[in-house]
Design brief:
The complex is a heterodimer of chains A (331) and B (554). Chain A has 331 residues and is α+β, with helices and mostly antiparallel strands. Chain A contains 13 helices and 6 strands. Chain A has 2 domains: 233 residues, Up-down Bundle (Multidrug efflux transporter AcrB transmembrane fold); 76 residues, Alpha-Beta Plaits (2-Layer Sandwich). In chain A, a hairpin with a 3-residue loop joins strand 3 and strand 4. Chain A is elongated and about 85 Å long. Chain B contains 16 helices and 12 strands.
Amino acid sequence: MSRFTKFGNALYTGERSFDFVGNRVRWYLIGGALVVLAIAITMLRGGFAFGIEFSGGSEFRVSNPAAVVEQTAIDTVESEAGLESNPRVSIVGGDSVRVQTEQLTDEQTTQLRQDLADAYAVPVENVTASFVGATWGQDITRQALIGLVVFLVLVSFVMALYFRTWKMSIAALVALAHDLLITAGIYGVLGYEITPAAVIGFLTILGYSLYDTVVVFDKVRENTSHDGEESSRTFAQSVNLAVNQTLVRSINTSVVAILPVGSILFIGSLLLGAGTLRDIALALFIGMIAGTYSSIFIAAPLYVHLRENEPENRKQGRKAREPRPASGAVR
Amino acid sequence: MRSARTRFIWLGLIFLLLIGGNALAVLQGTGSWVPKLALDLQGGTQIILAPQVSENQNVTEEQLNQAVSIIRQRVDAGGVAEAEVTTQGGANIVVSIPGVPDQATLERIRSSAKLEFRAVLQAGADLVLDETGEAPVIAEDSAPQSSPTDPSDVAWITPAIDSAYNQLSCAALDERGTNVADPAEPLVTCSDDGVAKYILGPVEVDGGTITDAISGLVPGPQGTVTSEWGVFLEFDSEGTEAFRTVTERLVFLPGVRNQFAIVLDGKVISAPRTLAAITDGNPQISGSFTQETATVLADQLKFGALPIGFAVQSSETITATLGFTQLQSGLLAGAIGLILVVLYSLVQYRMLGMVSVFSLVTAFTLSYFVITYLSNAQGYRLSLAGVAGLIVAIGITADSFIVFFERIRDELRDGRNLESSIAGAWRRAFRTILASDAVGFLAAAVLFILAVGNVRGFAFTLGITTIVDLIVVALFTHPLMQMLGRTNFFASGNKLSGLDPRALGAVYRGRARFREPVDVGATAQKKSAREAKRRQTIAERKAQEEAGLLEGKN
């Protein structure tokens, strides 16, 4: 049997135990510092880099050109009459060139498409042209924000109903905010473009982060619901045991969830370059790691924080703190 | 065990229904065994149209649906095969066309084709812009000095309208768009080619009363055929009546006021002189038409004007090659992801991992048939974002198996035998899976209802796979575990089963058969004994107290 299983056994019985709840200040600080860093560096860099979908413009993609070089495209755009220079040119997927310009008229688009095809010595069918109005990105963002608010309200309600306490909802939402801020922050820090696909990724983190927290909280609920005044553990110890008992599960589910996402990220960046797959997968990849961390290190300790001073929970485990009778009899 | 069989039968029924539904669609020739692909996977052009409305104006769902059906008719009439017109996010219209559309097709789709007939009040040449290229300033509206008596009355020309007319440059008009003009008010506008400008009276006949429109060559004066293309209109009785009234009035008016302007989308396409009253309701429009533009206009008029104007918000073309590459990469990423998950499961859970592999395969097959069925029945198209959703779902589906397996192990550690462990674990794990899937589904549903564009395809597959996950874990994984739990291989806790109670450090296994003591630390022994005690029922505790066993335990 693998070492990992033994590790799981030890965690289950309490032979080994990580003090997630006791060291909570440390975990809060780590999470908080990461969030602050992410925001600060993003601000210093001058905010997020938004994709063409948010700023508006035209995009051309030349596939399978004779030579994959950026300069050809820059020269072509600059030689075009009536166009502002400074196109954003990048090589995607190793075999195609992407050219982004300001928004062009239909005639200019047709012209540039033809010229790019000539310059790269490919048939004109190999050059695709797209354009996005500046409002498109705003529309998608507005809808995303509405979706975010509606989802948060609904899900807080559902969780409060299921767990019979709104404090779990609060702890889960704080953990969620941590995940979202870190994910968006890494985009800001690394200067990756925020595209609608990345926004999809952010939105999916909503679901995943809470999904993960719910699994941990369900074990917490189970462990603490048995407790009463008679329990030999304090409320905090009870929660900590629950988190330790689901730790193997947390690690396994996170690995299993991250493997396919990592595979999309790898294939997406390698074969396709910038695009839907890579953008979704990158956001998810970061968000899932942050989500696993926050369920264990932030959500559960925070829940203890919110509840341990309730009169009922204060009583709990008092016996554990009193000196035990030498006979060992509990009652 | 009867329940395990019953649940397998239910799962079989679900499969049969889906496959049957699919087979039916295939037999009728309307469906296929593979889901339809969206544009980003098969190549084509996607045009997103956004309504042009003023700030305080709202687009109703009715208007949007009307616009969709009109655009669909126009596209179909244009002979574009397999085009799709849908609404999105409650405001936009998405037109998906295979291949690259030409200018005429674009025009056919996006122009609202709001046709109006207005009397000409004043006409002149276009204003030549000065160097600054300033757009005309529209002065404050003021009431006409005397109320106009009929739509041809020059009293409509207030000083404000007059100054707007004087400052109007047709180049500036293009940018502004006059398609939102009030039909009850006079209109200052230009001709389609931007050469002449007009002040027009209020709308007297509108395109809504047109019953049919065909394009053809305009007959000459003596019935000879000319080479000029035009559009022939047919009005309903109301339109015919209105047309007769107007032309009867105009025919006696002098100068430009004798002209009748035909206004399309806010621009004058033609302003013919009224030579005779038209009483039969069959006028013709001629101007600078080619065969193509005449056909497009006739189609537009026939299917009616769009209730609101639209502007192209985004247009994206993807070549078939790129689409194929994207599909390939998506499938490749999915395959690699699946293999990694399978390997990890096998390493972590040994033979138990095989259960999760079979469950994943079942979940995948089920999702595939659901998507194919929806593709046939609802016209759903699988997009790249949708494929990404499916791949992400592999991990989330495997999650619920892991939650279940870990629970079984927990129960084994508490010293239950395998069969009761599976039963106990299921009760607890199913609660957890239900709660977490509910959260996941909620996220997908909210995204699907509120989101636009790609997000929907992603949310859709994520939502489907969440439901599939629940079905598979309840109707496949659990009954399978129940059956496996009775096999000797698993029940005896074979080392390779992944459920070896000895390795899991179980307190005791089987009824009253305690395991050989394992060397664990003193604290751990105390803790697990406490754990065991905590889990005792009251009856057990009392029985132990009576037997005086409690003393020795702690």
